[in-house]
Amino acid sequence: MPFETRPKGIQSRCSPESGGCAGGVMSRETPEQVLKSIVDGINTGNLDALMSLYEPEAAFAPQPGSLAHGLAGVRESLAAFIAMKGTLDLTVTRVLEAGGLAFVAGVWSFTGTGSDGKPVTLTGRNGDVLRRQADGSWRFVIDNPWGTD
User: Fold this and answer.
1) CA nearest 96: which of 127, 51, 58, 50?
2) Which DSSP category does 26 fall into?
3) Torsion-angle region of 35 (φ positive above 0: left; ψ -120 to 50: alpha; else: beta)
């Protein structure tokens, strides 16, 4: 199918009750699974496994209006979320696929602890772009947690 749109209601939260993120394996079989893997990786603090979800030239928006480029920028941005030792909840609301690219929209919330020891609560509507790889898996090209805000 050259163009596909799928409304989604997939929620992801890595927890011991749901089987956790055993072995740190990040699934990349579908765009939705990549987003679930992001949640699992952030909630378990597995930065190295998270990095497998990104193309080498990927970009990450650590805050609205800002874009970190390349794996070093992505790693630094993700490390900041992980440092807050919080919980990320995400619901994928829509996936649009065409020509080996996927746009993934969703809503998320994050609760953690800031470097000052105070509680941090963040929310947003993500707008992400993923690309199908030669092996059929998917990876982020643009990870934009603030995508539709």
Assistant:
1) 127
2) P
3) alpha
For residue 102, the surrounding DSSP H or E stretch is strand 101-113
Tell me the per-residue pLDDT of 85-101, one tens digit each, with 9 for 90 and over.
Answer: 999 999 999 999 999 99
- Banded model confidence at residue 107, pLDDT cuts 50, 70, 90: very high
- Mean pLDDT (whole number) for 43-70: 95
pLDDT for the residue 147? 81
Helix ranges restricted to H, the chain: 31-44, 47-51, 70-83
Rounded alpha-carbon distances, angstroms, from residue 26 to 20, 80, 138: 12, 20, 11
